[in-house]
Amino acid sequence: MKNLIYLLCLVYLSLISFNSFAARIDNTVILGIQNGTSGDFIITLPPNSDPKCTNGGVYFYVAAGQNGLNSDGVKVLLSLALVAYSSGVKVHVVYDNSTQACFVSSINVLK
User: Fold this and answer.
1) Segment 9-34 mean pLDDT
2) pLDDT (tens digit, 9 = 90+) per residue, 86-109?
3) Cys-Cys with 34: which of 13, 42, 53, 71 at CB 3.0–4.6 Å?
4) Would you tell me how many other CB atoms lie within 10 Å of the CB of residue 98?
5) Is 70 helix (H, G, I), strand (E, B) or coil?
6) CB of 73 within 8 A of CB of 67?
7) Is 7 helix (H, G, I), strand (E, B) or coil?
């Protein structure tokens, strides 16, 4: 019984720490979009958006197989990023800042 309680505690702790690297930037604008070589892309946010990210906190990467995205998810995020960029509206960006690539998991376009 004691081992079962320890196991449940271990599972619980691993689940609550699963998204411990999720970060969010609110009310920002997309300054640029750069295509990658295999369907991935990079969005450029204002300087120092997150100093942990590449090039002084400017580049945020979107790629299949990273941060829970598949290839369809990358296409959806590209569409959202293009709409936000072309219309100049603000966005919320959720990403993983545990690496310098800061892989994005979602983009919320604001009105």
Assistant:
1) 70
2) 999 999 999 999 999 999 999 999
3) 42
4) 14
5) coil
6) no
7) helix
Amino acid letter at 110? L
CA R_g for the chain: 16
Mean pLDDT of the residues in the chain: 86
Contact by Cβ (8 Å): 35, 81: no
pLDDT score of 100: 93
Kindly report the CA angle at 47 between 83 and 18, in degrees rounded to 5?
75
CATH architecture group of domain 21-109: Beta Barrel (2.40)
The whole-model pTM stands at 0.80
Alpha helix (H) ranges present in the chain?
A: 2-16, 54-57, 71-87
The strand pairing partners of 92, in sequence order, are: 108
What residue segments make up the domains of the chain, in order of their start?
21-109
Measured distance CA(56)–CA(110) in Å, rounded = 25
Choose among 39, 45, 53: nearest CA to 99.
53
